[in-house]
Structures are given as C-alpha cells and as structure tokens.
C-alpha cells in the first residue's frame, strides 16, 4: 500500500536529530541505499532523499539553487556520486520540484522503500517518526486533506 503515515515521534520510533546530512544515513534504509553507491539508484530514490532533506527545518530557508549545491556536497558519498547519477533532466526536475511544489518524502511503508528496508519489526526508526520535519509539511497535509 502506498500511503503516507505521519506520526511526529508518536509511533515509538527512535528520534534522529539531524545536524548535517550525514546524520540521515543513520536510518538503515538510507544506509543501505548509500551502500549501493556503486550502482545507479533509481532517480526516485535521489528525489526522496532530497525531499526528506528539504522538509528538515534547517534547510527550509535556502533557495532551491543554494539547497541543491549544499545537498550535493554534503551527502556522504560526495559530489562524485551525484555527478555520476545526475543528468540535466534530473537537475531540471529537481528545480521544478523545489520551486513549484513541495512533495512529501516517502515513508518506510511505501512500496518503493522496500528495496532498502531491513523490516519494520527490526528497525527502531521510521522516516516520519524519527525525523523532525518542518511544521509547514504538516500544515500542507492538513490543507490537502480538507
């Protein structure tokens, strides 16, 4: 089932405090994704990582261009990984996403995340339960559900 589950730390998930982007890779699903850096990830996975980061409070005031530049140099595998996987189409789509609409990150229960999961019953984290996202994301959800 492809749906979003919002919990704001209420699902018993262990919280992760993100001081820099490398902290996101404490989530086992993202650590597994990073271990696959020799292969090309699905573009959707990179978008999801961007979405996750974009909704963190410390990144919401950056311009899309500034955010993308900081993002590509801050991920653990560095700019080489991004250059290897990126294309002009990726950059154009990413700028569109960040300037026109603000899509939500995929949660652990999303089918696309199954490639990287270790199993919900074995994982002390969840994307929506472990990360403290900007309140604007929750407000957007409330508006969409009305």
Distance from first to last alpha carbon? 22 Å
In DSSP terms, counting alpha (H) and pi (I) runs of 4 or more, how many helices?
7
> What proportion of the residues form beta strands (DSSP E)?
under 5%
Task: Give the uncertain stretches in residue-range form.
Answer: 1-10
Q: Estimate the mean pLDDT confidence.
A: 71
CA radius of gyration = 15 Å
The global form is globular
Structural class: mainly alpha
* Tally of strands: 0
Number of domains: 1
Share of helix, binned: 40-55%
Largest sheet: none
Write down the secondary-structure element order: HHHHHHH
Key terms for this structure?
146 residues; mainly alpha; 46% helix; 7 helices
Question: How would you explain this protein's 3D organization?
Answer:
The structure is a single chain. The protein starts with 27 loop residues before the first helix and ends with a helix. It contains seven helices and no strands. The protein has helices spanning 28-35, 43-54, 64-74, 78-85, 88-100, 127-130, 135-145. It is mainly alpha-helical. It has one domain (21-145). Mean pLDDT is 71; it is low at 1-10. The radius of gyration is 15 Å and the shape is globular.
């Amino acid at each position: 089932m492809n749906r979003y589950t919002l919990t704001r730390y209420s699902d018993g998930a262990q919280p992760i405090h993100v001081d820099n982007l490398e902290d996101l890779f404490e989530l086992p699903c993202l650590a597994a994704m990073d271990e696959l850096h020799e292969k090309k990830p699905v573009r959707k996975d990179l978008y999801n990582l961007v979405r996750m980061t974009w909704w963190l409070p410390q990144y919401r005031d950056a311009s899309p261009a500034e955010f993308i530049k900081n993002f590509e140099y801050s991920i653990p595998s560095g700019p080489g990984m991004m250059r290897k996987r990126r294309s002009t189409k990726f950059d154009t789509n990413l700028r569109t996403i960040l300037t026109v609409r603000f899509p939500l990150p995929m949660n652990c229960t999303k089918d696309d995340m199954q490639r990287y999961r270790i199993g919900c019953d074995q994982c002390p984290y969840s994307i929506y339960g472990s990360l403290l996202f900007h309140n604007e994301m929750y407000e957007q959800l409330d508006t969409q559900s009305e």
